[in-house]
Amino acid sequence: MRSFVLMLFLGLMASSSAFAQAQKGKLPLDLGKPGPDVAGQIQQIRADLAEGKLYSEIEAAKRAEVVQALDRISATIDRNQGRELSKADQVSLSNDQELVNVILTRAKEDSRMVCRRERAIGSNMITSQCMTVAQRREAQRRSQQDMNDVQRRSRLD
């Protein structure tokens, strides 16, 4: 009974996050499709990771996690060709799918280029400042850290 409740909870969590993601856009990996489609999706994800444009802001450790999860998914699908999956395999596939989708969705959002048009101080000339979302976040974090450092130093003097 306890395992059934746990499985039901995990299923609901996976489906709710997948539903929320589907509302925003297409999921990187959808295991609800037939086997050849899943293999094509995995191939496309691997190609996008290798190309480095769509997921340019993904960290090396996260990239390795995605590749390992894709390897596990491929191995499970190959091992069970056409047969019904065991409960353990279903849970494993669901967890790996969720891991891949969360990491890749975040990396894709962070890799989005955002441009801002600004006037230089003392000039009417407009320039475009383009950075990825992750670069903007890092610049904001560094700027905040610098301001905190200046305030700390002024209190000590």
Number of beta strands: 2
Which strand order do you get reading across the main beta sheet? Answer: 1-2
Mean pLDDT over the full residue set: 82
List the helices and strands in order: HHHHEEH
Q: Give unreliable regions as ranges.
A: 2-9, 18-23
Give the topology.
Elements: H1 2-24, H2 35-51, H3 60-79, H4 87-110, E1 113-119, E2 126-132, H5 133-156
Antiparallel strand pairs: 1-2
Helix pairs in contact: 1-4, 2-3, 3-4
Q: Mind explaining what this structure looks like?
A:
Mean pLDDT is 82; it is low at 2-9 and 18-23. Helix 1 packs parallel to helix 4 and helix 3 (60-79) runs antiparallel to helix 4 (87-110). This protein has 157 residues and is mainly alpha-helical. A hairpin with a 6-residue loop joins strand 1 (113-119) and strand 2 (126-132). It has 2 domains: 2-110, no CATH class; 113-156. 69% of the residues lie in helices and 9% in strands. Strands 1-2 form a two-stranded antiparallel ribbon. The protein has helices at residues 2-24, 35-51, 60-79, 87-110, 133-156; strands spanning 113-119, 126-132. It has 5 helices and 2 strands.
